[in-house]
Amino acid sequence: MVRTFWRTLLAGVAGTIATSALAAPGVGEKVYGAQVEAGVSEFEARYGRLMGRADDGEDGLVLEAAHGFSSRFYGAALVELEREAGEHREVEAVSVEGIYALGQIGQSGIDVALYGEYEVRLHDADAIEAKLLLEKRAGGLDARLNLIAQKSLRQGDRVQLGYAASIDQAVLGDFRLGAAAFGELGTFRDLAPHAEHFIGPIAKTEFEGLPGRGELELETGYLFALDRARDDSRGQFRLLLEYEFHF
After folding, report:
1. Mean pLDDT throughout 41-59?
2. CATH of the domain at 130
3. What's the pLDDT score for residue 236?
4. The domain containing residue 148 runs over which residues?
5. pLDDT reading at 2 higher than 50
6. Considering the entire predicted model, what is its pTM?
7. What per-residue confidence (pLDDT) applies to 194?
8. For residues 182 and 26, is the Cβ–Cβ distance under 8 A?
9. Taking every pair of C-alpha atoms in the chain, what is the biggest distance, in angstroms?
10. How many domains does one find in the chain?
């Protein structure tokens, strides 16, 4: 009943928008941290656009609303939109996600969290996703690694493995420079095959003192296509905007 409601609602929002099937690693995605801040709400927009070759102009946009319900648990609702080159943008899926912070590993300073997501897809079988989130902060350095397992609920589909990683360093006040990478790791039966990978430089900054004790965070970058990703694109442009405030 709930599933039928969401499908009907989003189909109305999407209207007559055409179907697409964009799934390049990193497009509309982010590298999650492993720390949760209680009482902080977020509105976020994540945009990615493929550049060059057959997939030139394809893009993805994710809109997210999230809240830190405690110092351990964070929950969010997302809408995913995609567009093929020359086509209209369409709503592909809605999802809910949660992060549970486990704390640090001994004296290592590495924070660990677990991530879970249920995705309702309008044009395909629904999917579930789990991530192991690792984060290390030291001085102005922030290093993150997400290990990803996704399973379509279509009978017979295998678990798909992947990763997302980033490292950035404060260089001048709130301005940070670093690198990010996204890619596929295959399945448990075929681990680390030739697959799609993207890696490249990123820049981050933030603006404080906004309403609600708010902060506006901005991240942009360009990731170069590697391995099989080079068959269809040269790389991807990324832009992330996140507004945090205390509710």
Report:
1. 96
2. 2.40.160.40
3. 98
4. 2-246
5. no
6. 0.89
7. 93
8. yes
9. 55
10. 1
